[in-house]
Structures are given as structure tokens and as C-alpha cells.
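Entry:
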Amino acid sequence: MPESSVVVQPDPIGSSRLQTVGLRTATKLFEQAAAEVPLPAAPRPVVIAEYGSGNAHNGLLPIGAGIAALRKRVRPEHPIAVTHTDIPDNDFSALFRTLRDDPFSYLRTDRATFASAVGRSYLGQILPSEGVHLGWSAWAIHWLSRMPSEIPDHIQPSYSADAQVRAAYARQAAHDWHEFIAFRGRELSPGGRLVVMTMGQHDDGRLGLEPLFDGLMRALSGLQDQRLLTAEELRRMRLPIVGRSEADFRSPFAPSGRFERLRITHLVVADEPDRFWQQYQNDRDATAFAKSWVGFTRAAVFDTLLEALDPADAARRSRLADALEAALTELLVAAPEPMPIPVAHIVVEKQQR
């Protein structure tokens, strides 16, 4: 699966689809980084890398804001190179259509900015050493690179009752974060910065979004009871995503506070407000609340869940997605609850020579 997830939330009051969870804070952090990092002299380009780009929507606003901040420091003709990275299976055609067509695309506002893409996993070195001045990653590193074990009793590992399963996924999460940071340490230029926004974790180990994950399990079990889904297909349905605590993020940097010449300059893990719930508190429209969350969920994880089905039967996959959407909507309408969303914002800086 791509090293990113859709976090663009359909909004019941019609605001921009680019308003994503935690994006405002992350954009400010990226702007600040762009205002402060050491820059190369012309004609060498300023290099921005996005790690886990998906369709590029998650990076449009922050990268655009970063470019605007850079333009206050360099001449209009100074080249800025933006490299979007993801695994080879990512839909790079969709990415380039986003950059061409989206009204928020940075290519529409800066003629000296040039876009390219790299189809390789960010769990290795994918860009030249010391060549990246600014790094950006949003809603990507919470996807694990592999599933270390089966999950016998849930679709998501942190909600499994099996302590060994939870421990195996925690080890995999630690490995992936270590590798991600290690290779960014090679790629960042001296003084370069990386801004990361991803899933956090509550102090008790919970990922958050409990009503949503509970609803998904209940909806899927109901589809199995209706014989729309087999027990084996349900067993194969997994979401290999994890949240991390502040201690998890700091682990590679212990005990000195530095790792691969990197140090954390900003780290906050906190619940973001559920704006769908806030809207529900105003209008008491449970259907709108449910449809907003289910629309987000379908875009974010339905494709991953439905990988358990026969890929040759596209019509059945579509029917099951519709049935799951309807079942989950019904459950959330019946019992609206706020969705706790722990989000981590991290800034990492590379030591200057």
C-alpha cells in the first residue's frame, strides 16, 4: 500500500477538503522551518522532499506555505525542487494530476518551482546524501512496512486482547521509525529540518478513534452474519497502522538526544478536536455526523480492508464497500460519540558542521 493515507475529511459545512486533522499546526511548523534553514546559493536549487506522498493532497498547503516563506529569502528565479516520494505501487499519475489541476497546487503560484517523484520506500535512502533542505511527511509513517503477525481478534493491532500481538506490532513500529529517521539523517543537509505529522498514541497505549474502530468491527461482523463476507475474509482484513507515544518517538535519540546528527526540536502528542463532533454539538444532526466520519473512513481504509477479497471481482468489492458504508453509518447515527484523535507533530533538525 502507499506510504501514506487519505486524511482529507469531507466537511459537513462545506469548507475546503484540504482541512486535515492537525494540518494547521504542521503547516506553521513547516513555514518556520523554511524561514530558518540554511539555503544554498543560486543556481543550486532549494530541495524539498515529501515522504509518503500518496496523491499529494496532504502536502499541498504546507509545501506551498513553505515555498512562500522561502521566496522571502531567495530571488524569484532561484529554483526550488520538490520531490514527492512513495512506493512504486503508488498512483503517481494521480499525484501529477493533483499537482497540475488542484487550485491549491504550488505549481500554480511559483514558476521557479519544479516537481518530480521517486518510487521507492522511505525505509531506505532514496535521495542523495545531504541534499534535502526541508522534509515533510504527513499521515504516512503510521502505516507499517509489514505485518509481523496475524491479529486473531480485531482489524487493528492496538485493540487486540493478545499481548504478544500488541508487542510484535510495537516492535515493528519501533523498527520502522528508527529506519525512517536514520535515512533522513543521511539525506538532510546540515541545518536541514524534517517536519512529521502522524498518529500519536494515548498514554495507556490506545490509538484513539475507539468508536470508529468498534463500529467497523461490528459492521463487518454484521456483514458476515448476513453471509456477505466469509469468516476467512474477515480474518484476513487488517489495518497495519500504529500510533506512537512521545517515548516511542524519542527512542532512537536516546540517551544522548542525538541520532545520525539529528535532534528533535519540537515534539507534541495531543488530541486534536473532532470538528465533526463539534458540528454535531451545534446542529444535532446525527446523520451528517455519521456520514462525515464514514466518508473519511471509506477514503482512508476501505481499500486496505477489501484487499482481503478476490481482486478479480471488482463488482463484489464495490458492493461490499457500499454495504459496509451503510452498516457503519447506521451504527454511528444510532450512537454518536466524539472521536479522540491523538496526533503527533515532530520537527527534527540536522546538526550543522
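Residues 6-19 have pLDDT under 50 and may be disordered.
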